[in-house]
Fold:
Amino acid sequence: MKTWSDRYTAVLGAAMAVLLLAPAGAAALANVPRQVEPSRAGAGIALVALAYAGYLALARVFGPVATSAADAAWLVLSPLPRRRVLRRTVIVLGAVSLLAGLVVALGLLAATGVQGHLALRLLAAVVLGTSATVGGMAAAVLAQASSTWDGWLLAAIVVVVVLAVLAAVHGAATPSPAVTAAAATAIVVAAAALARRAWTALERIPAHRILGASTRTGTVATAAVVMDPGALTWIIEDAHWRRRALRSRPMPRRLRGAPALAWAEWRRLVRRPLRAAVLAAAAALPAVAAHAGGGLTPVAVAAVAAGALAAAAACTTGARRDVHDPSLPRLAAAGGRSLLVARSVPPAVVGGAWLGSALAGLSLAGALGAGPWWLFGPAAAPALAAGALRMARRRPIDHSMPVIPTPVGALPTGPVIWAMTGADLASLGCAPFLAALTGHPAALGPLLIVQGLFGAAVAAAFLLTARPRPH
Structure:
């Protein structure tokens, strides 16, 4: 039973959160454009729609109805009313939905502009955003209770992605106030109906699904806060391959030792076609962000840099496994620097191809100057591979490192150093490319040559100095 102290702590925490987020929200509203071109509005709405699809996908993956391990093991299986047991979970899901709705509302305002009607458009955006996120969370709860609703939710995610692509390609016209009011009314009614059905469905959610969601959430929270965020990759990888039957295919006869293990990385990527398709489609996000922002904005630059490194890191599962379990290299009679060199080929090819595709899209969108910008992809590929391998081989977070006081608060150095490991080497190796991207040079030829040589030198230095087996 809650005491007055518990209620006081909850109210105080909510008030502090509002006080801390209010200045950031006011600053964001002050930077909202007054008027946006229809083509740019379409690109902005596409980004908001993709973010909403990601929100639905995360809610579907994580449950979303979950509770603590003790409550899941005892209270969920007890004869107590299920809604009473899950009341705190419902409050958390509602708070997450409202916060996500405010973010969606801010994105809608930034995409469509205010055109002198800030109060009216802000109200409409908040209503649309919060209703969409609350309705989406309710649909995820229904999907957890019913396989039929799970199929409908997956179909809704696909529809949202398709609408985002159409908005990015064809643009979007600013709707009239009457259309906006009608859409807001329809979304509010649908969200209320879904929320009511979700509240009723809490009693029908199978206990094993709540237990599974609670286990996943608890493991993710422990790995992200207490232990090591790198463990999240193992959780996702093991959850995907568990209970799957794979067809056995012979290894190419000419592959022996280290190249054979690198070939297994390619096979792992091919056996997940949906992941590869999402990775390839993400190469268009920098162009969409640049089109929505009216040029090569910092957001577009960050999307290029983060996307290229993430694409390269998607092909380093084997390198991570070599660090924690060297038994497979021993069985394959491989190891040392030859294995590390072989492991660098897949991330170099995938990261370079992704970067070249993203730069080609930015060139087609008119965000870059004249010249073969896509050649920076293969030129920066060795540096991207070196950074991805360094990320895959990093140690867990050292929480014993000191906490440095800064003007914005205490800064724990352990998580910061862990997050920068790998990104620092990739940024160093891609320094000529980043200089060209932010400086808009007249001639790309010299910078391309410098990038190719410097990136290869950084990758060679990493491969020569890295220890084959850190543990």
Q: What stands out?
A: The mean pLDDT is 81. The first strand starts at residue 403 and ends at 406. The two ends are 48 Å apart (CA to CA). The first helix runs from residue 4 to 30.
